[in-house]
Amino acid sequence: MENKKDILSRAYLVYVLMCVFAIAILYRIFVIQFEEGDEWRRKAEAFTTKVFEIEAVRGNIFDVNGNLLATSLPYYEVGVDINAPSIDNKLFKANRDSLAYMLSELFQDRSKKEYLKLLKDARASGDRYVVLKHNVSYKDLQTIKTFPIFRKGRRGGLVTLQTNKRERPFQRLAARTVGLARDGIKPVGLEGAFDSILTGISGKRLMQKIAGDVWRPINDENEVEPKDGSDLYTTLDVNIQDVADHALLKALVTNNASHGCAVLMEVKTGEIKAIANLARNKGDSSSYSESLNYALGYATEPGSTFKLASLLAVIDEYNVSLEEKVFVGNGKFTFSNLEMKDSHAPETPTLTVQRIFETSSNVGVAKITTKYFSKNPQKFIDRLNSFHLNKPLGLSIPGEGIPLIKQTKDKDWYSTSLPWISHGYESKITPLQTLTLYNAVANGGRMVKPKFVREIKRNGVVVKKFETEVLSEQIVSKATIAKAKQMLEGVVKNGSGKRLNITAFKVGGKTGTAVIAKAGKHGGKTAYGVGGDKTYQASFVGYFPADNPLYTCIVIINSPSNGNYYANVVAGPVFKEIAEKVYSSSLNCIEPLNAKHDLLTKAPKVIETQNNEMTSVCKALSIPNRTQIQSNKYVSENMKDSTRVELVESNVESLLKKGIVPNLQGLSAKDVLYLLENNGLQVRLFGMGTVQKQSVDAGKKFAKGDKISLILS
């Protein structure tokens, strides 16, 4: 019995102890859940970690000369963990004042006292992460790393998070063609077309949650480093682009036009050297910007520039002579009860095909087209289709406009369609399609696709080259091409394009003045407006130099409203300015000075630049030179020896180090930016080329942060 009682008493004791233990556990759970819950949740959040994607640096977009059209610049969020274990009280107290002062001097957004209070408060409260500044440049970040405490790096509590911001150094120039890559939205331009190539591969970084929604990196390095995107090298030339943009803008302002475009294309390769698209800004009738790519994306009735396509079909199909005569009467003719008019009365009732084209006679083109194709109009349409006018060109940039060439089986084909199509109506094509056709004539009949990209590079290595694509080896016979060139050059010499008045070289081209239909406003036969209620499109398209065509160019000005709307007055001057400036600056257009291999008797003048650059130029041009400068310092010319380029060390760098502004005349924009900004000056440039004038005289003292303006040649 005693044994039984002893066993039971022990069992009861164990039971009671288990109950007490269970009650204690329940009590502790209650306390943790309801009394200490908030504190433990805060601690749990403090140790929350998460892997974040690190955005790769997007690839650059360059022009044909290596100038940046679009680039990603790194910006940083800079924060501090002032309670890092390596920062003891002695280190903090000894350096906090100087750190606060240097932060205030660099950022200029808070006083020294405010920064000192921020640091002290963070230290006292135990904050492990305090944001100091957003959008800090790479240059300023390197400066911050030299500050007291921070110079220890992560052990000094410095925490940085990088973001990349897309920048276009040339702002408006070719903005719509360079484009935008937008998540979930229709891509624009080269940025959108080559988004996957430019984007790169994201990296990984382990981050720790500090408080709220604030995260900080756990390690100094990324767990997986991002792989930067590839670079795109375009066919655009930013210097020519600048010429086209300014010439187009001037014409739009002068003629109070709504929008316009200008495109320059290389004949042999199809490379687009410049493409400007400007439209009037809403709410500001005097300013224009690149909002839409009209050259690529908008198909309209082309007007008289289409007459080339019609006469190519007629001449090639029936071997028509340019001397064949057509009766145009007084410039009016009725086709199936619908009257057609010429813009000006003809000089004689009968005109040759050559003269019809030169004077842009609507009636003449319509009559000769109907003479040969009225019995089989589909044959005419088939020839137009063979010129690739009925379908998109398949360009590398998205958003190409959809052309329209009526077919005889279409419901809206009328008895008047053939004559009206022949002179540029009842059809729609984009400016680039018109340019491509004219380029084919300039290229001897070989039609090439417009090209915007030359190659893709990764880390400086070419990974893909884009060759010229041929759409048609020969759109018409060589004999027809010869006749077409004769007609086009006659327009500029004796016809509607005579006002171009280019004397330095010959040009072939065609004017076009089209009345634009106002859909839904007038309806029926008055859709083009009546009386003064008409909207016009002025265009000029051609090639130069005519003896050996190197470039084709199209200019279109929409809705000019200052009284002038004819193409030779509105669009012609833009073509002329572009052609003359490109011709004067293109080595391909100018006969080499040393074609006869004459001996050099006098050394050319040289600008001040770096030693290795000047010696490389002299070597490439076989110019005798001598330099005793071993390092890559800036050099100038020693004028004692006129038979060779003798280089001596320039005093530009030494003066800047002493805080003295040197004589900058003759230095290139690249060099002055490098020299002056590295010495703390803020530079503003006006123009292009070499320095002609400087706002701060040579010999004047300067301080870091001073501004200097430079006028270039």
Describe the structure.
There is one protein chain. Strands 2, 3, 4, 5, 8, 19 and 20 form a seven-stranded mixed sheet that branches. Strands 11-10-9-24-23-22 form a six-stranded antiparallel sheet, with helices on both faces. Helix 9 packs antiparallel against helix 19 (572-585) and helix 11 crosses helix 17. The chain has four domains: 2-35; 51-234, Penicillin-binding protein 2a (Domain 2) (Alpha-Beta Complex); 240-519 and 533-585, 3-Layer(aba) Sandwich (Beta-lactamase), CATH 3.40.710; 609-712, Trypsin Inhibitor V, Chain A (2-Layer Sandwich), CATH 3.30.10. By secondary structure, it is α+β, with helices and mostly antiparallel strands. The radius of gyration is 36 Å and the shape is extended. The relative contact order is 0.08.
In short:
The chain is of the alpha+beta class. It folds into 4 domains: 2-35; 51-234, Penicillin-binding protein 2a (Domain 2) (Alpha-Beta Complex), CATH 3.90.1310.10; 240-519 and 533-585, Beta-lactamase (3-Layer(aba) Sandwich); 609-712, Trypsin Inhibitor V, Chain A (2-Layer Sandwich). The termini are far apart.
